[in-house]
């Protein structure tokens, strides 16, 4: 779907590149582009859209080279939902989405037909003839999604699609993102600073910080790495000798009142019961810690404070393990 090699993007007046050393290959699916504000997410989207020309390296989107003469035609195959509003306040959602369909290359009649279809898809069919000035924030976000879909793109870029939404609005928007891929077969690049949003919908993850890729991999690979994290509960706190022997199971991350967080050396947590029997301890519960994807973000952004996940040779392939960059190389 997207590939780039040592990609660099520089703003004209900036002393240093906004993006540097980006090398990655992304398969078709839902890709979460995660990072703090100012990490370079929007810059990357603009480069992939052809709005910013790379100052170094190379890249392709849907097989078309970035910066190539035919890159302008690529926009007819891509939808873009910007972070900020670009709506015409005194115009109805239907008129705007139909107009954007024509701008994307559809004939006027086809654009009007598609406007009805996509507004129904995003749940705005009953409000489509109202001026958007009376819309709620959630409705405005769905108008932006509809305009990104009106020309049936192969790939859409969503820049902070849940920005400004309450919990229910976020849930509805993320449900729509899942439907876009599942029902329409459209590839999705979702840029966000909210880990929970990315975790809910993405099957691949890319973490950006200060213009570099800090981590990349499939969500399945990340979860396999995190599946080694367990919490062990013993009937009684372990004595000093038993605690020292826990290193036979893996790395002890935290110990408190008979509870021990471990990162296991072996993937099978059942070995913990054999260990307990051999060391005279009574193990009463083993709890997998599958809900710690936030640690991936912390490890990627602050490698000196958090141990790195295992390195991978093929980041962001569908079944690959995660890759964490701790050397500032962008790989």
Detailed description of the structure:
The structure is a single chain. The protein has 331 residues and is of the alpha/beta class. It has two domains: 2-222, Rossmann fold; 228-288, Alpha-Beta Plaits, CATH 3.30.70. It is 32% helix and 25% strand. The chain is built from eleven helices and 15 strands. It has helices at 41-48, 71-74, 93-103, 108-121, 137-149, 167-184, 195-201, 219-226, 240-245, 271-278, 294-301; strands at residues 2-9, 19-26, 30-34, 56-61, 64-65, 78-81, 155-159, 187-192, 204-209, 212-218, 229-234, 250-256, 259-264, 283-288, 323-324. The protein has a seven-stranded mixed β-sheet with strand order 6-7-8-3-9-10-15, with helices on both faces. Strands 2-1-4-5 form a four-stranded antiparallel β-sheet, with helices on one face. A four-stranded antiparallel β-sheet has the order 12-13-11-14, with helices on one face. Helix 6 (167-184) links the parallel strand 7 and strand 8. The relative contact order is 0.14.
Entry summary:
With 331 residues, the chain is an alpha/beta fold. Helix content is 32%, strand content 25%. Helix 3 (93-103) runs parallel beside helix 5 (137-149) and helix 4 packs across helix 5 (137-149).
What would the keywords be for this entry?
single chain; 331 residues; alpha/beta; Rossmann fold; Alpha-Beta Plaits; 11 helices; elongated; disordered C terminus
- The CATH homologous superfamily of the largest domain is named P-loop containing nucleotide triphosphate hydrolases
Uncertain residue segments = 308-331
Number of strands: 15
Cα separation of the termini: 19 Å
Instruction: Give me the number of helical elements.
Output: 11
* Spatial strand arrangement across the major sheet: 6-7-8-3-9-10-15
